[in-house]
Amino acid sequence: MTEIFGVPTQALFGQLLIGLINGSFYALLSLGLAVIFGLLNIINFTHGAQYMLGAFVAYLLLNWAGLNYWWSLVLVPPIVGATGIVIERLMLSRLYKLDHLYGLLLTFGLALIVQGVFRNIYGSSGQPYAIPEQLTGGRNLGFMFLPNYRAWIIGASAVVCLGTWFVIERTKLGAYLRAATENPVLVQSFGINVPRMVTLTYGFGVALAALAGVMAAPVYQVSPQMGADLIIVVFAVVVIGGMGSIAGAIVTGFGLGLIEGLTKVFYPEASNTVIFIIMAIVLLVRPAGLFGQQK
């Protein structure tokens, strides 16, 4: 059996694949957080619960309405995104002129409520969600076996992340969004409804979390705790990349997933803490994050 640095090739590439899959979810979730923080200056702690909600809505659509995975990919993001719009209009819009801490406390409380409700109904154990028939099986690449669904997760996440980056950084809509964070009065003078744009942006960030939840359901099962277990790591990813940085969220998400996978091969004891160690080092050297703007 071929080895690299004393590690069997199949084991090494297998962990890299797991790292890329985790990185795909880190990137999607941190991208949603970056979009929300970049425009609203809200640290959205409800993001993990909204990720979990996406998985549960897909599960309920399958079991109650008979709508499969592909329908869920289309329907779940706008459904969960709509709940985000309600939250923004009724609650978060009242906090924009206050300290960031108020938004964090509100969203943290909402996350606990949502997770508690689903835990009381479904318990703490995970509910199975089958891989769609079209993506079952895999391909033997010689040096490793690549499951089709895992490849789909990586490819779809990359497309969504790059598409979001392009819209925000390279289009007129994105220019308006970025301008609204600096001077909303000026943007309003161009006839643009800034409050509506802010609301829709929050809904879009929530929809990204819901999309990640649908894609994660066949991999991690559907559990009330799935968001709570992930959100702390995702916040670390956002801090490392730079709060509000779209490119930082994407690059750091995928990159840290790979680093985490490599750590599991060469030093498994540090695999659960390596991201936080990197975060501490980055904050010491560059407090604004790798892609953040120094003030």
Tally of separate domains: 1
Work out the number of β strands: 4
Mean pLDDT across residues? 89
Weakly predicted, low-confidence segments: none
How is the main sheet built? Answer: 2 strands, antiparallel
Outline:
By secondary structure, the protein is mainly alpha-helical. It has one domain.
Describe the structure.
It contains eleven helices and four strands. The model has no long low-confidence stretch (mean pLDDT 89). The chain has helices at 9-40, 47-64, 69-90, 100-122, 148-170, 172-182, 184-188, 194-220, 228-241, 246-266, 274-285; strands at residues 3-4, 7-8, 138-140, 145-147. 43% of the residues are buried. It has a two-stranded antiparallel ribbon. Strands 3-4 form a two-stranded antiparallel ribbon. It has one domain (3-114, 146-285). The longest helix has 32 residues, at 9-40. Helix 5 packs across helix 6 (172-182) and helix 9 crosses helix 10. It is mostly helical and 295 residues long.
Question: How are the SSEs placed, and which strands pair?
Answer:
Layout: E1 3-4, E2 7-8, H1 9-40, H2 47-64, H3 69-90, H4 100-122, E3 138-140, E4 145-147, H5 148-170, H6 172-182, H7 184-188, H8 194-220, H9 228-241, H10 246-266, H11 274-285
